[in-house]
């Protein structure tokens, strides 16, 4: 006859690698804050630019992190002594994934990677395209609610700015008054499956009503070249003042005629406005 019964009990153990890693992140940030304070005091102690509020702010950050470790489940979590590999839980599980993402953003924030930041001779036209796109974003951000964007990506090398001619970048907004969806795109390739040829305008603003299927598109092209409209020239006789070159104007009309929308057998134009960013003003080429 058996005299003993095997009993199995489940026990929740929070002292896992992932939780130890979270605790290690908090500790490393605390150390960086203290290091910053020491360097700041040593560098600006006798300077008029020394600001005690910066020390108070970093002290407040340090104390908040201390409370996270001291008065939460992390008090029962051990220390992390070595990191061989990162687990899938840390990279994919909700909560852990966000902690790891923002930690990378914090420690890699000063290591911006992109061709836009390389110290080299830049093409003036491309720099002007960047400026016009970012200026449009600045205007829209002040008026609408920013939802998301893919301008900046986080990877193991740091923060990568995705603003160059080899890829598309988009910023998404919502109009809080009527819930309209607005998308500002840079270098967007269009009409890949249309009867007309593919088009790639510098910047495009797409507006979609809350209860509609049609997208209203507005093209913006950055043109830094100006015709001076010298007296006696053909350009002066037509327009009487400096402005964009006629080839640039014709490009905007091409966008209007070539960018199409397909729904079943129906094909229609979707560009309701085209604008040229000249160095002195925005030139309206056509507007519905």
Average pLDDT metric: 77
Q: Report the major sheet.
A: 7 strands, mixed
| Distance between the ends | 93 Å
Order of helices and strands: HHHHEHEEEEEEEHHEEEE
Give the fraction of residues assigned to helices.
Answer: 25-40%
Task: Calculate Rg over CA atoms.
Answer: 28 Å
Q: Write down the overall geometry.
A: flat
Total of DSSP H or I helical runs spanning 4+ residues: 7
**Proportion in β-strands:** 15-25%
Q: In total, how many beta strands?
A: 12
Domain DUF2357: 1-103
Pfam family, one: DUF2357
Protein name: DUF2357 domain-containing protein
Folded structure, characterized:
- The chain is of the alpha+beta class and about 290 residues long.
- The chain folds into 2 domains: about 15-110; about 120-285, no CATH class.
- It contains 7 helices and 12 strands.
- Helix 1 packs antiparallel against helix 2 (about 50-70).
- The radius of gyration is 28 Å and the shape is flat.
């Amino acid at each position: 006859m058996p005299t003993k019964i095997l009993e199995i009990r489940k026990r929740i153990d929070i002292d896992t690698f992932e939780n130890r890693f979270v605790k290690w992140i908090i500790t490393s940030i605390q150390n960086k804050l203290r290091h910053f304070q020491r360097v700041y005091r040593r560098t600006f102690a006798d300077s008029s630019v020394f600001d005690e509020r910066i020390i108070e702010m970093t002290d407040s950050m340090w104390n908040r992190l201390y409370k996270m470790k001291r008065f939460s489940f992390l008090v029962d979590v051990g220390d992390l002594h070595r990191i061989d590999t990162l687990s899938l839980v840390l990279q994919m599980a909700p909560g852990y994934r966000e902690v790891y993402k923002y930690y990378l953003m914090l420690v890699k924030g000063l290591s911006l990677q992109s061709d836009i930041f390389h110290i080299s001779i830049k093409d003036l036209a491309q720099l002007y395209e960047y400026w016009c796109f970012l200026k449009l974003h600045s205007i829209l951000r002040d008026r609408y609610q920013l939802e998301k964007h893919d301008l900046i990506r986080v990877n193991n090398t740091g923060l990568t700015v995705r603003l160059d001619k080899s890829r598309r970048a988009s910023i998404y907004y919502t109009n809080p008054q009527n819930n309209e969806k607005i998308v500002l795109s840079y270098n967007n390739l269009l009409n890949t499956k249309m009867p007309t040829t593919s088009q790639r305008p510098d910047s495009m603003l797409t507006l979609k009503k809350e209860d509609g299927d049609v997208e209203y598109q507005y093209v913006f092209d950055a043109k830094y070249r100006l015709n001076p409209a010298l007296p006696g020239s053909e350009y002066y006789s037509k327009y009487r003042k400096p402005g964009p070159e006629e080839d640039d104007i014709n490009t905007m009309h091409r966008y209007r005629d070539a960018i199409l929308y397909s729904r079943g057998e129906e094909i229609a134009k979707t560009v309701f406005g085209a604008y040229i960013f000249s160095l002195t003003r925005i030139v309206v080429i056509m507007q519905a």
